[in-house]
Amino acid sequence: MGQHVARIGAGLAITLFFIAHAAHWYPSADGSLEPISQVDNLIYDSHVRMTTRRGVDERIVILDIDEKSLGEIGRWPWSRRQMAETVDKLFERYGVALVAFDVVWAEPDPSSGMTVLDELSRTQLKGVAAFQSAYQKLRPQLDYDARFAESLKGRPVVLGYYFNGEDRAVRVNEIPAPVLPKGTFAGRKVQFPQWQGYTGNLPAYLANAGGAGHINPVVDRDGVLRRVPLLLEFEGQYYEAFSLAIVRTYLAGVSGEPPRVEPELPPEHAELEWLHVGPIAVPVDRGAAALVPYRGGKYSFPYVSLADVVKERVAPDRLKGKIAIVGASAPTLQDMRATPVDAAFPGVEVHANLVAGMLDGELKHRPMYIVGFEVVVLLGAGVALAILVPRLSALWASAAALAAAATLVAFNLMVWTKAGLVLPLATSILMIAAIYTMNMAYGYFVESRSKQQLAGRFGEYVPPELVRKMAEDPGRYSMAPKNAELSILFCDVRGFTGISESLKPEELREYINDYLTEMSMVIRGTYRGTLDKYIGDAIMAFWGAPVEDPQHARNAVLAALAMQRQCGPLNARFAARGWPPLQVGVGINSGTVIVGDMGSRLRRAYTAIGDAVNVASRLEARTNGYGVDILVAEPTRRLVKDVVFRQIDRVRLKGKEETVTIYEPIGLESEVSEEAREEIALWHASLRAYRSRDWDGAAADLARLARATPACRLYGNAAANVEEKRHALLPADWDGVTIFDEK
C-alpha cells in the first residue's frame, strides 16, 4: 500500500478536481470549468447526431425564401400587397392550419408611392381639389401595409420579433403583451438575461396577428445553437418564444383559445424545471430555455419554395392542414446557424424542430437532481480507480479504465434514449482518463506519425510549406473549433449565368477549372492562405489559421490585388479560344470567428463561421453595384499600413447598429503614382461634398474624374447616386450612410 500512496493521493486529488466542477464550486459565472463544459457540449452534439430520426415530419412545412424565390419575385422584402395576397392564398386556396413568419416586419412598405403622394397632398397639391378627390379614392388601394394587416385579421398567424441586449438598443414598433406578469418568479433561482430594447412589428400587423414570439436563440460559447429560451424577461415581465407562440396558436385552433403558459413552481423547489402549455409539459432549464430536439440535418421538414406558392404551382393537398413557417434558406439572407447537426443550418428549421418536439412531447430534459447524481458517480468511480489502478498491471489497468468508461457511456446513452434525460458525461470520462494517464504515464504518439496525420488533415487546405512548419510542432495545431482572428476573402465570377449559357458543358468545365486553379494558386501558393471551399463559381479563403499569421490582413489584400491582375493573362487565353472574358468581384473582412473542423457525420470540413465571414460575403456581392473590383471592410483596412486605399462608402448592414466604412485597395504605397493619388484625393473630395449635401460640388468633382478615367464605373455610379439624392426627400438627420435593408 505504501508504495502506491503518492499515486493514490494524486488520483483522489484528480477526483476532487472534477467533483468541484460537477458541484459548481469554481469561481466562474456558473461555477464550472468552461473546457469541461465544452466537452460535454460536444458529447451532447454527438448524441443528437447519433439518435436523430432521419425522417421527414409532414405536419410542418417550411415556405422557403430561397434563391429561386428571390430570382422569380425579386429581392427581399417583397411588397406587402404581394404578401397579403400570399396569406390569402395560404388560407383560402391551400387551407393551411397556421402561418408563422420567421421575419420581422419592422418597416412600412413604401413601394406603392403612397408616402410621396401623402406629402404632395399635404404640401404642393393641397389646394388642388381634383387631385385630392382622386387621391382619396385611390389611397386605400395604395395602402399596402393596411392590406397586409387586413389579411392577418382573424387568422392564426404568428409573427416574430427580437430583443436586443446592447447598451444603445432602441425600442422599435411594438411587441405583444407578456404571457406572465411581474413577480412570477420572485424568490426563485431563475436566471434571465437582461435586455435593453427590441425590434417589433408594425402596430397594425401585431394588432391583427393571432400571436407573436421572440426569435432570440441561446448561442453557447462555441457558437452552436442548442437551446431556445421559451421565456425572456423584459422590464420584469415575461415574453414567449416564437416556437411557443406557434404551439399556443395552433392549440387554440383545437380548443378555441390559446392555452396559458403556466410554470411549474412547487414550493419545495427553488428552480424552474417545467412549463405547462395546455396538455403539453415542456422541460426547461433554470433560464427557461428548452433543448432543441433536432430530428436530423437540413430538410427534416418539407421545403416548398415561396415562389411556387405565389405562382400557385403547389398542389393544395400538400399544404392543407399544415403548420406553414415562412423563413429563409437563401445564403444571401444570412439566416444560417451552427447547430449540433450542421455547421450551417437554416434558422427557420430550428423553430420547426422545436414546434414538432413540443407537440410530440419529446424534448430532452436536464433535471436538477443530476448535480447530486453526478457527484455520487464521480466520488464512487474516482475513489475506486484511484485505489485500484496503481495496483494493476498496464493491461488490467487499461481494461479497468475502459470498462468504467464503457459502463458510464452505456448508461448515459440508455437514459438518453429511454428516458429522454441529458446527463453529463464529460466529467466522468475525463476523470477516468486523467487518473489512467497519470498512472500509466501515457505518452504522445511518435513524432513521425503525428506529422503524417497533420499532413493528411491540412494538406488540402494550406500550402506544403505551412504543412512542413506545422509538422515541426504538431501539438500546437488542431482541427478542433476555436475562436481566432482571421481575414476572410470571398471571390465570385460576375455574369456567370451569361458565361454558362454561351459555353458548351465541357468548355464551361475547363473555363471554371482554369479560373479556380489560377485564383487558388494566388491564394494558396503566393500568399499562403487557407482555401476554405469552392461554392459553385465562388471561392472562400482565409488567413490566420491553422497557422497564425500576424500579416493576415495584408496578405489577404495583396492576394485580392494579385487575383485581379491574374485575370489579364487568363482572359488572353480565354479570348484565344473564343470564350467570354472573366471578371471577378472580391470582398474582404477581418474579425474573430469560429474556425475548425465542422459538419455532419456524413461530411465535415475545416472552415470558418461567424459575423466577420458574413460581412465579407456581403461586401463581395456589393462590388458590382459600386463599380469596383475589390471591397475591404474597416477592420481589415486598420490592419494594413503599406497599401493605398480609396474610401468607397459608409454602410449599415441589415441587423447591425454600427456603421462600417468600406474601401477599395489601389496598391502598395511604393507602387501608386502621384497621378493616382491626386485622383483619389479628388474622389474623397466628392465624398465630402456628397455627405454635406453639396450636390453641385460632388457632381462637378465626379464629372472631372469621369473625364480623366472614363473606364472607371465607380464615378458614373456615384454620379447617378448624387442625382438621385439631389431629388430625394432626405431626412434632416441624413448622414450619408448607405443602409442595406437586405441581408
Description:
It contains 24 helices and 27 strands. With 743 residues, the chain is α/β, with parallel strands linked by helices. Strand 17 and strand 18 form a beta hairpin. The chain starts with a helix and ends with a strand. About 1% of the residues have low confidence.
**Contiguous helical run count:** 24
Number of extended strands: 27
The gross shape turns out to be: globular
Low-confidence stretches: 442-448
Average per-residue pLDDT, rounded, comes to: 86
- Specify the helix fraction band: 40-55%
Structural category is alpha/beta
How far is it from the N-terminal to the C-terminal residue, by CA?
A: 68 Å
Radius of gyration: 30 Å
Strand-residue proportion: 15-25%
Largest sheet: 9 strands, mixed
**Assembly type:** single chain
What is this structure's SSE topology?
Elements: H1 5-22, H2 34-50, E1 60-65, H3 67-73, H4 80-93, E2 98-101, H5 114-122, H6 129-142, H7 144-152, E3 157-164, E4 171-172, E5 197-199, H8 203-208, E6 211-214, E7 218-219, E8 225-229, E9 231-234, E10 237-240, H9 242-255, E11 261-264, E12 274-277, E13 280-283, E14 289-291, E15 303-305, H10 306-310, E16 323-328, E17 336-337, E18 345-346, H11 347-360, H12 370-388, H13 394-419, H14 426-440, H15 447-458, H16 464-472, E19 482-493, H17 496-502, H18 505-526, E20 530-535, E21 538-543, H19 552-576, E22 584-599, E23 604-609, H20 611-626, E24 630-633, H21 634-639, E25 643-652, E26 660-668, H22 674-691, H23 695-708, H24 713-726, E27 738-739
Parallel strand pairs: 1-15, 1-16, 2-3, 2-16, 3-6, 4-5, 22-24, 25-27
Antiparallel strand pairs: 3-5, 7-8, 8-14, 9-10, 11-12, 12-13, 17-18, 19-21, 19-22, 20-21, 22-23, 24-26, 25-26
Helix pairs in contact: 1-12, 1-14, 4-7, 9-11, 12-14, 13-14, 15-16, 18-19, 22-23, 23-24
